[in-house]
Design brief:
This protein is α+β, with helices and mostly antiparallel strands. The chain has helices spanning 65-74, 98-101, 118-129; strands spanning 43-50, 79-82, 92-97, 136-141, 143-144, 147-148. It has a four-stranded antiparallel sheet. Strands 5-6 form a two-stranded antiparallel ribbon.
């Protein structure tokens, strides 16, 4: 395979391809690092917990409570990752596009802009329980090291 890092663009143009080879665009307004998104939208990790529903029960079934919950989240936010669910105490984590579903002012948030995910919580509750009983809680979580905190 040809070495494109030392090739020139066009008919002998002095601009080397290597100048833009594997360049990263910074996340900050100045275009400088840190380099954390690598061209993806800004993602937000959220944790979904229910006081009464164990999302891990038969979670691979297409009509499971976990499947219904993920579908409800997808109706309100762009999902990039859905974690394997744990029991009622641990719930599950999801990585979503932070722009489209930001807590407080995004499409999936409360209309009162109170920093919650009321709309998504209600949708999950209706999908799983048939009514908005207030059983579902969604919180932002931080991505730290190799784990979700």
């Amino acid at each position: 395979m040809a070495d494109l890092t030392s090739a020139t663009i066009g008919g002998g143009s002095a601009i080397l391809v290597a100048r833009s080879y594997k360049q990263l665009v910074g996340d900050g307004a100045s275009g400088a690092g840190p380099y954390t998104r690598f061209g993806t939208p800004q993602l937000q990790a959220i944790k979904v917990i229910s006081a009464t529903i164990d999302f891990s029960t038969s979670y691979t079934d297409p009509n499971s409570n976990y499947s219904k919950a993920i579908t409800a989240i997808q109706n309100r936010a762009e999902v990039f990752y859905a974690g394997i669910p744990g029991n009622t105490a641990t719930g599950f984590t999801v990585l979503i596009n932070a722009i489209s579903s930001d807590a407080g002012d995004g499409y999936g948030a409360s209309s009162s802009a109170d920093g919650s995910y009321d709309n998504v919580e209600g949708d999950i509750d209706i999908a799983v329980n048939g009514s908005d009983s207030g059983d579902i809680t969604i919180t932002n979580i931080a991505l730290t090291g190799l784990t979700f905190a």
